[in-house]
Design brief:
Layout: E1 16-20, E2 38-41, H1 52-67, E3 71-74, H2 82-94, E4 100-102, H3 108-117, E5 123-126, E6 136-141, H4 143-157, E7 162-169, H5 172-188, E8 193-200, H6 211-224, E9 228-232, H7 237-246, E10 250-255, E11 271-277, H8 279-291, E12 298-302, E13 309-312, H9 316-320, H10 322-336
Parallel strand pairs: 2-3, 2-4, 4-5, 5-6, 6-12, 7-8, 7-9, 9-10, 10-11
Antiparallel strand pairs: 1-3, 11-13
Length: about 350
């Protein structure tokens, strides 16, 4: 189940904010929780990306609303070093925040280092499962499954039999999105042409944080004939969506239900749907586990069966395409039933 995301303007790079509830130490009703709430460190693009980071913030808000624990969320710096990430997590843990969560695989090394120094604090790392420690939860997802559904939707909705995929950065995590999408498209019609590209080779080059790069890539794919474009590009995806709308072709969003993002309201009629990744749910569940005195640790994976990933159907125009909806629903059930195994590369 997708956690609804409240669209917010990004605060300045490097700034931090006490964004929910109180920053004072708090305890659960049974006295098991004692801390200063959630410490949330954002990925590239920061809060306000209408996608990945905002999904994490939605989980932060939900936990505070239910448990009243408050917390602090911290923005990344442009071009920051690994030492900056270590310092950020260290400050959150040292000040008593629990759990401390790194939003994105770029925090893997920092989480590993800082978690060893604060054994009584629970740490979470989203999109990485390499950190093995008794006080670390690896919060990962079967992104390829949601992307498969996006591929089915794109193939069924395309009139030109020509679709596109735009990944933010050329890395294994984003390859999962591309692989699932391509397999989903081909499951409908192997003859459909697929445009595929990555905006940058590394995150530092702005692949997840440059709407202009997304817009340029989408323009090129539309010029080649694609009439449905799926992005897995974080903040850069806003450029993909705006360009698709400008050319009156379909865009498919990612991570959050981008049809419902207020910052994208001018383009919503052209957002067919979104491949959901319940990042907010993962943040919430980890916070809940710590609050209840039973911290999650080890690999925690969200997939279609658990509701950790999915496909948003908020757009009434999508719902009206009964053949598309039926195909996506059927594909979802086949994956859940084990009849279809989605590739990750």
């Amino acid at each position: 189940m997708a956690v609804s995301v409240i669209a917010l303007a990004a605060v300045g790079c490097g700034e931090s904010s006490t964004s929910a509830g109180s920053d004072d130490a708090s305890k659960s009703a049974d006295g098991k929780y004692s801390g200063k709430g959630i410490g949330l460190a954002y990925d590239i693009g920061g809060r306000g990306d209408q996608s990945f980071n905002d999904a994490a913030y939605a989980g932060f808000q939900q936990a505070d609303k239910e448990f009243g624990i408050g917390g602090r969320d911290v923005q990344p710096n442009d071009g920051e070093s690994e030492a900056d990430k270590v310092q950020r997590l260290t400050e959150l843990a040292k000040s008593g925040h629990n759990p401390v969560i790194g939003v994105g695989f770029i925090y893997a090394s920092a989480v590993k280092e800082v978690a060893a120094k604060f054994p009584n604090t629970t740490f979470g790392i989203i999109d990485d499962e390499q950190v093995k420690a008794p006080n670390v939860a690896d919060l990962v997802f079967s992104e390829e499954q949601a992307s498969y559904l996006a591929g089915v939707a794109a193939a069924k909705a395309s009139k030109a039999k020509h679709v596109g995929f735009i990944g933010g950065v050329d890395i294994p995590l984003i390859h999962k999105f591309g692989a699932g999408f391509e397999q989903g498209v081909k499951s409908v019609d192997p003859s459909i042409k697929i445009e595929s590209q990555y905006l940058t080779e590394t995150p530092a080059e702005g692949g997840f944080s440059s709407p202009d790069k997304g817009k340029e890539a989408a323009s090129g794919q539309i010029e080649k004939g694609a009439d449905v474009i799926y992005h897995a590009a974080g903040l850069s995806g806003q450029g993909v969506i705006s360009e698709a709308a400008a050319n009156k072709v379909w865009a498919i969003g990612v991570d959050s239900d981008q049809y419902n993002q207020s910052a994208l309201k001018d383009y919503k009629d052209y957002i067919l749907g979104s491949a959901l990744k319940n990042v907010g749910g993962a943040v919430y569940e980890l916070a809940k586990s710590v609050y209840e005195g039973k911290p999650l640790t080890g690999v925690v994976r969200g997939d279609l069966k658990s509701g950790g990933v999915g496909f948003a159907d908020s757009n009434p125009k999508y719902k009206a395409m009964t053949d598309v909806v039926a195909a996506v629903d059927a594909a979802k059930q086949e994956i859940i039933d084990g009849k279809v195994t989605v590739k990750t590369s």
